[in-house]
């Protein structure tokens, strides 16, 4: 008992002691801190009290109180706030004993950014306020920076700091956007913090119209484009509207990716109007109006054909048309265009137009007014036309020549041609009140067609001449017409106006007879002779469709006086001759230059050069010389061709190059002036076939083709008479000797049109220089071709002097007839027959014998004719080192001077001094042809 009493007394006598660790505290807002309260003396209870004096109960989240054991308790403050600051008290009690301790907690606010949005967007031009809310204790000092540099407010008055530390920019610009820095500072603590703010300045869209008003054409399936370019930030989106109705992509409208271009498909007139372009972005929206003007091509909406009767009431054709702009309407028929108003002084035709309607009125329609009329509507956009038909019903109209000329025994046709509508017409013939034919008119026949009747009268006596009546009728009316049959007469004499003499020919120009006798002139007869030499030569020239105003007389001697006269021939007969005109032929001279004609071949780099022989100067042409060159280049080797050659083919020429071609004719008197031709080859096609001619194998590319009519190859007195009409020789050379263009030469039968064609600059006949020897076996009588109708002239025969024809005389190929008077012993005329050679004369050039060619190197092509011709032996053809005789072929004999053309000493006149001659030579089999031995270095193609 004594011990227990002692312990209780001891406890009572000991006082309580309270300690708080730490003794004080200072934290920032948001931080957490705990305090330990320790009690000495054995406390029964330990409590914590807030600065407000309120006991802090356990279980709170922001402030926690935990009794650790009998002697301690812990106070924990989580996420301290400013209002948590103050003095906290720890009180320990045990019975009647109590002790306490306090701790002062200070809480300060660190720099804290409570509201700093980024990015912050503004619209250009607005007064922008950049928000930056920052707190601290003590309150911070706020600084503003732009792109890292402190904003100098005194330099730009647009910038200023508001009381709440926000930054204001008055009238913000696009150049003001970027990164701004909001920086807070506490000098007492040296504390600093900042935030970066991205400022974006949006720009309201602006619209640029490419074309405020757009024109389009309707109803043609066309599309049109409306475009507006929008600028702004961010990039605006473009939309379209019409009448406040948004337009969407579909069958009518289509848009590009950003919507700035709108295509209106298949434009019609309904699409005309205003369209709105709308551009939108964050800054707002803008809009702009565009106008679409739609034009409409003219369209004829009403047109109706009409029917009327000739000379009846007026008829009107009406045409209506629409379009924008309003179209103008015109009327036309054939090539005649009607203008507005009256078309003739009497006002029979009247055109009236009003807005979209036009009318064409014919007051008294005639049958010639019938047909197709054209209504044409046009405006600035286009035009359209439609036909309308006017039908005019009328009584028959009888056409045809009133007078018909004929003679007894010659049937004459009287044409009663009828125009009528309706075309169901009845036609009858009468004479002296009696219908034809009848029992007394056996010499009359009638031939009918749906639109004509032909009365054939075979005049047997004078009584058959006179009047004949044709009557035609239909449901509209009847028409009659008198025809007169008149006896025909022979034509009067033509009038010779001029004679143009040459060495061996002359061109006679004349005027037609004043009177044709009522029937056309069918032929003209020319008769000429040497003055004082007795009877002359006659020749008949047929009149072609184009008429005849000049003829060529041939076979003349140089420097000789001649007289010529002419007469005209019609179906009735031959009229009187004109007065004789005397002329004198020119002296013997060199030939006239040939006339050249060039034809570019389809391949484009080949040319056919054809020439027409002119006057030979009184001496036969011996050969032709051909030279050609590219402009600004050297002349190619001269080509030596026979006198019968008509053209040369230049193949494989350079593309797109200009060439000059000279052709010279040469006789014993010398060379003619060159006939010249300039041409340009075509541009090279995209794909060519190379240098080889497609029709020849490569080994035969360099070749020369000569096609010679056998009857034109005579020399001396030897005949070249074969059944073929064309003999061709092909000379082949090795391929690798030259890359010059291929030259093809072809000769054909001379055209007779050179004699008869009107307006020839010079005739093309040949005549030897001297009087020939009399060779009876080569003389022939030339008979005049009979006329189709009787003539009043006697047939005269004679022979031509053999000296008047050359080895190549076109007179042998004339289609017109030739009449020669009977032979006159003192002044005989002789003529070379078609297949004879020229007789010997001392002026004829001598031709040496030439050996025959190697058959392996010369190909003879013979085109057999229908009728046989007499044969004649000729010397061998092509020279070679070892002559090999070739017997004459039974079907073809070739004159040597035709194939091997010998070059004379005279050179072809050309601007360049360089001249060379290419001859035709043989290439022996098994040997290579050297360039200097080739017949033609620029090889020619062979064509039969």
Care to describe what's here?
The model is unreliable at 688-742 and 744-944 (pLDDT under 50). The protein has 944 residues and is mainly β. Strands 19, 21, 22, 25, 26, 28, 31, 32 and 33 form a 9-stranded mixed beta sheet that branches. Strands 10, 13, 14, 17, 18, 20, 23 and 24 form an 8-stranded mixed beta sheet that branches. Strands 27, 29, 30, 34, 35, 37, 40 and 41 form an 8-stranded mixed beta sheet that branches. It folds into 6 domains: 2-108, Immunoglobulins (Immunoglobulin-like), CATH 2.60.40; 112-202, Immunoglobulins (Immunoglobulin-like), CATH 2.60.40.10; 210-295, Immunoglobulin-like; 307-393, Immunoglobulins (Immunoglobulin-like, Sandwich); 400-487, Immunoglobulins (Immunoglobulin-like, Sandwich), CATH 2.60.40.10; 595-752 and 852-933, Sandwich (Immunoglobulin-like), CATH 2.60.40.
Assigned CATH architecture of the largest domain: Sandwich
How much of the sequence lies in strands comes to 35-45%
Report the helical percentage. under 10%
Shape: elongated
The first-to-last residue Cα distance is 170 Å
Please report the total strand number as a whole number.
Answer: 64
Question: Please, what is the average pLDDT?
Answer: 76
What is the secondary structure topology, with strand pairs?
Elements: H1 2-13, E1 17-21, E2 24-28, E3 33-40, E4 45-49, E5 63-67, E6 72-77, E7 86-94, E8 97-108, E9 112-115, E10 120-123, E11 128-130, E12 133-135, E13 141-146, E14 149-150, E15 159-161, E16 167-169, E17 178-186, E18 191-209, E19 213-218, E20 224-233, E21 237-242, E22 245-246, E23 253-255, E24 261-264, E25 273-281, E26 284-303, E27 306-309, E28 315-324, E29 328-333, E30 336-338, E31 341-342, E32 349-354, E33 357-362, E34 371-378, E35 383-399, E36 403-406, E37 411-421, E38 426-431, E39 434-436, E40 444-449, E41 452-458, E42 466-473, E43 478-487, E44 495-501, E45 506-511, E46 521-530, E47 537-542, E48 550-553, E49 561-570, E50 581-584, E51 595-600, E52 607-612, E53 623-630, E54 638-642, E55 647-651, E56 658-667, E57 670-671, E58 675-680, E59 703-708, E60 724-732, E61 742-746, H2 753-756, E62 818-819, E63 858-864, H3 896-899, E64 917-918
């Amino acid at each position: 008992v004594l011990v227990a009493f002692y312990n209780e007394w001891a406890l009572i006598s000991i006082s309580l002691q309270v300690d708080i660790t730490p003794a004080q505290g200072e934290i920032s807002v948001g931080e957490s801190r705990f305090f330990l309260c320790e009690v000495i003396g054995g406390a029964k209870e330990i409590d914590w009290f807030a600065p407000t004096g309120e006991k802090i109960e356990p279980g709170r989240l922001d402030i926690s109180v935990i009794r650790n054991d009998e002697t301690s308790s812990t106070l924990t403050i989580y996420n301290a706030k400013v209002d948590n600051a103050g003095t906290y008290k720890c009180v320990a009690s045990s019975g009647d004993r109590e002790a306490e301790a306090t701790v002062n907690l200070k809480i300060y606010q660190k720099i804290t950014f409570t509201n700093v949005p980024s990015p912050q967007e503004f619209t250009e031009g607005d007064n922008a306020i950049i928000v930056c809310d920052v707190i601290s204790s003590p309150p911070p000092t706020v600084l503003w920076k732009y792109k890292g540099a402190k904003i100098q407010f005194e330099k730009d008055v647009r910038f200023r700091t508001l009381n709440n530390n926000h930054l204001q920019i008055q009238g913000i610009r696009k150049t003001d956007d970027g990164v701004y820095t909001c920086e807070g500072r506490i000098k007492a603590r040296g504390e600093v913090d900042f935030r970066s703010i991205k400022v974006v300045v949006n720009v309201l869209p602006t619209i640029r119209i490419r074309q405020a008003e757009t024109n389009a054409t309707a109803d043609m399936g066309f599309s049109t484009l409306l475009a507006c370019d929008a600028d702004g930030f961010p990039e605006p989106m473009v939309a379209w509207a019409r009448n406040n109705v948004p337009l969407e992509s579909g069958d009518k409208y289509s848009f590009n990716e950003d919507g700035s271009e709108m295509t209106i498909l298949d434009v019609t007139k309904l699409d005309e109007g205003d369209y709105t372009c709308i551009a939108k972005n964050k800054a707002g929206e803008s809009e702009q109006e565009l106008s679409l003007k739609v034009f409409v091509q003219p369209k004829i909406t009403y047109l109706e054909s009409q029917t009327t009767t000739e000379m009846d009431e007026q008829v009107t054709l009406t045409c209506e048309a629409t379009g924008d702009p309003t179209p103008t309407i015109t009327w036309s028929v054939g090539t005649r265009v009607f203008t507005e108003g009256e078309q003739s002084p009497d006002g029979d035709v009247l055109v009236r137009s009003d807005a979209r309607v036009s009318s064409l009125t014919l007051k008294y329609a005639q049958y010639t007014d019938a047909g197709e009329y054209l209504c044409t509507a046009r405006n600035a956009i286009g035009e359209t036309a439609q036909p309308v038909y006017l039908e005019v019903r009328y009584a028959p109209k009888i056409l045809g020549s009133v007078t018909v000329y004929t003679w007894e025994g010659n049937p004459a046709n009287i044409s009663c041609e009828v125009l009528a509508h309706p075309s169901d017409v009845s036609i009858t013939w009468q004479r002296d009140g009696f219908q034809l034919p009848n029992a007394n008119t056996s010499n009359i026949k009638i031939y009918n067609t749906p639109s004509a009747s032909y009365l054939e009268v075979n005049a047997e006596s004078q009584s058959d001449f006179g009047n004949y009546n044709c009557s035609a009728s239909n449901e509209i009316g009847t028409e009659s017409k008198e025809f007169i049959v008149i006896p025909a007469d022979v034509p009067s004499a033509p009038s010779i106006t001029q004679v143009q003499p040459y060495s061996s020919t002359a061109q006679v120009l004349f005027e037609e007879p004043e009177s044709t006798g009522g029937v056309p002139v069918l032929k003209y007869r020319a008769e000429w002779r040497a003055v004082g030499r007795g009877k002359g030569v006659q020749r008949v020239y047929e009149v072609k469709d184009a008429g005849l105003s000049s003829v060529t007389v041939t076979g003349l001697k140089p420097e000789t006086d001649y007289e010529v006269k002419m007469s005209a021939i019609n179906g009735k007969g031959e009229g009187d001759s004109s007065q004789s005109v005397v002329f004198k032929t020119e002296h013997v001279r060199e030939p006239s230059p040939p006339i050249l004609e060039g034809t570019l071949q389809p391949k484009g780099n080949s040319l056919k050069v054809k020439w027409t022989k002119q006057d030979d100067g009184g001496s036969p042409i011996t050969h032709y010389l051909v030279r050609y060159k590219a402009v600004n280049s050297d002349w190619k080797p001269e080509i030596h061709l026979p006198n019968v050659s008509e053209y040369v083919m230049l193949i494989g020429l350079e593309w797109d190059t200009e060439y000059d071609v000279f052709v010279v004719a040469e006789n014993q008197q010398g060379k003619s002036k060159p006939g010249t031709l300039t041409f340009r080859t075509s541009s090279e096609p995209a794909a060519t076939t190379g240098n080889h001619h497609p029709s020849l194998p490569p080994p035969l590319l360099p070749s020369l083709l000569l096609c010679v009519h056998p009857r034109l190859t005579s020399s001396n007195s030897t005949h070249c008479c074969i059944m073929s009409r064309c003999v061709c020789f092909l000379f082949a050379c090795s391929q690798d000797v030259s890359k010059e263009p291929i030259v093809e030469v072809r000769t054909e039968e001379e055209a007779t049109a050179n004699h008869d064609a009107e307006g020839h600059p010079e005739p093309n006949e040949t005549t030897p220089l001297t009087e020939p020897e009399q060779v009876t076996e080569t003389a022939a009588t030339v008979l005049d071709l009979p006329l189709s109708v009787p003539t009043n002239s006697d047939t005269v025969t004679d022979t031509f002097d053999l000296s008047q024809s050359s080895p190549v005389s076109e007179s042998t190929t004339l289609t017109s007839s030739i009449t020669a008077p009977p032979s006159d012993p003192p002044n005989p005329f002789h003529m070379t027959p078609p297949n004879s050679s020229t007789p010997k004369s001392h002026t004829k050039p001598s031709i040496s014998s030439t050996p025959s060619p190697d058959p392996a190197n010369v190909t003879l092509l013979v085109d057999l004719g229908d009728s046989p011709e007499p044969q004649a032996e000729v010397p061998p053809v092509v020279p070679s080192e070892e002559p090999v005789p070739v017997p004459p072929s039974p079907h073809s004999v070739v004159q040597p001077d035709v194939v091997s053309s010998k070059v004379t000493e005279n050179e072809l006149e050309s601007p360049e001094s360089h001249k060379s001659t290419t001859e035709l030579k043989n290439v022996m089999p098994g040997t290579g042809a050297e360039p200097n031995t080739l017949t033609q270095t620029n090889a020619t193609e062979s064509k039969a």
